[in-house]
Amino acid sequence: MPSAIPPFRYAFPFDTADLPVERADVVVVGSGAAALRAALAVHDAGAGVLVLTKRDPSESNTNYAQGGIAAALGSGDSLDAHLRDTLSAGRGLADPAFVREVLADGARAVVELIGWGARFDRHGGEIDFAQEGGHGTPRILHAQGDATGAEIQRCLLARARALRLRIRGNAAVVDLLTDGGRCVGVLALDPRGRPRAVFARAVVVATGGAGQLWRETTNPDVATFDGPAMAWRAGAALISPAPPAPSSLRRCAGRGASCGTTGGGAS
Ligand SMILES: Cc1cc2nc3c(=O)[nH]c(=O)nc-3n(C[C@H](O)[C@H](O)[C@H](O)COP(=O)(O)OP(=O)(O)OC[C@H]3O[C@@H](n4cnc5c(N)ncnc54)[C@H](O)[C@@H]3O)c2cc1C
User: Fold this and answer.
1) Probe residue for ligand 1, chosen from 56, 62, 121, 139 as the CB with the greatest number of ligand atoms within 8 Å
2) What tens digit of pLDDT does each residue of 235-249 get?
3) Does any ligand 1 atom lie closer than 6 A to the CB of residue 68?
4) Contact by Cβ (8 Å): 163, 48
5) Residue 152 falls within a domain, yes or no?
6) Residue 5 has what pLDDT?
7) Which one of 146, 178, 193 terminates a domain?
8) How much is the pLDDT for 246?
């Protein structure tokens, strides 16, 4: 925790004593791939989970991802080959140990998605791996050509619903509630914009990226950097807030937005 709490601790003043209150074991904020996978893990661990998401549960960057997912699952491919290609494309900027972990986890996640019913494109019954720039072999899975993200979103939502996870749309979270430096829940809006407190033993923030800070973006309206902003107000240290390029700053100035990070995507 940083020594000084930022001056704007909450986005607006409130007293939880005046608000409707709910409780959950774990609150997951967001309903993209990261949030839904986290919610499923919480469920698997036997805890109750409440997913709060800004708009319709299917609205996310995940839903618009197109090209596909790279995973070393094809015959003749290997984690080492995928690692070599990734480090080469990274031109010395990537951390080999971290990349290896992500690639191994990624391949496992793809196998898991297939097991949960994700329908990736096939040719002759086998996964139809495409080859893209930077990859020395075909290893890109895709769905309906360029609707890969929509298929992942569909698959994860279907699984979460089949397991009866509580998922609430039109429930934007605006702040993390803290007590003595510990996160104890969230302040969320109901569909009519009225605040309510949701107390939880743990909170997962998976609100995606910041694309809407830029004038030109492919990201949907929900990508407004809310999670890092509320975490920062709560005193969390943000890692890797890369300084925006001057061209990005000019674009932000044109929108009247303030920028603290780059992040055109939504990781
Ligand atoms: C057009 C496009 C093409 C892409 N193509 C690819 C590709 O080919 N391959 C690839 O790997 N990646 C691609 N990406 C990137 C990929 O989509 C993202 O990296 C990934 O989906 C991020 O997932 P996420 O769960 O972190 O965030 P998201 O999927 O954005 O989910 C964030 C969730 O948080 C919710 N949320 C936000 N703020 C709040 C709040 N205050 N309260 C409650 N909920 C909130 C949102 O509504 C959303 O449900 C593409 C992205 C776009 C936009």
Assistant:
1) 62
2) 998 886 554 554 444
3) yes
4) no
5) no
6) 55
7) 146
8) 45
Residue closest via CA to ligand 1's atom 53 equals: 219
- C-beta of 69 in contact with ligand 1 (< 6 A): yes
Q: Is residue 21 part of a domain?
A: yes
Q: Are residues 176 and 115 in the same domain?
A: no
Q: What is the pLDDT of residues 135-146, one digit of tens each?
A: 999 999 999 999
> What's the half-sphere exposure (Cβ side, CA atoms, 13 Å) at 79?
12
Indicate the residue type of 17: A
Residue 173, strand partner residues: 188
- Do the domain assignments include residue 6? no
User: Ligand 1 center to residue 49 CA distance, Å?
Assistant: 20
Ligand 1 in reach of 214 Cβ (< 6 A): no
Cα separation, 161 vs 156, whole angstroms: 9
**183 shares its domain with 73:** no
Q: Is the CB of 153 under 6 A from ligand 1?
A: no
Cβ–ligand 1 distance for 67 under 6 Å, the answer: yes
Are 239 and 168 part of one and the same domain? yes
Neighbours of 115 (CB within 10 A): 10
34 lines ligand 1 (CB under 6 A): yes
- The answer on 224 and 184 residing in a single domain is yes
pLDDT (tens digit, 9 = 90+) per residue, 8-21?
799 999 999 999 99
Please indicate, yes or no, whether residues 173 and 248 belong to a single structural domain of this protein. Answer: yes
Q: Could you give the number of structural domains in the chain?
A: 2
Indicate whether 50 and 73 sit together in one domain.
Answer: no
- DSSP class of 234: T
One domain for residues 50 and 182:
yes
Q: What pTM was estimated for this model as a whole?
A: 0.90
Our CA angle for 201, 224, 119, nearest 5°, is: 80
| pLDDT (0 to 100) of residue 242 | 55
232 lines ligand 1 (CB under 6 A): no
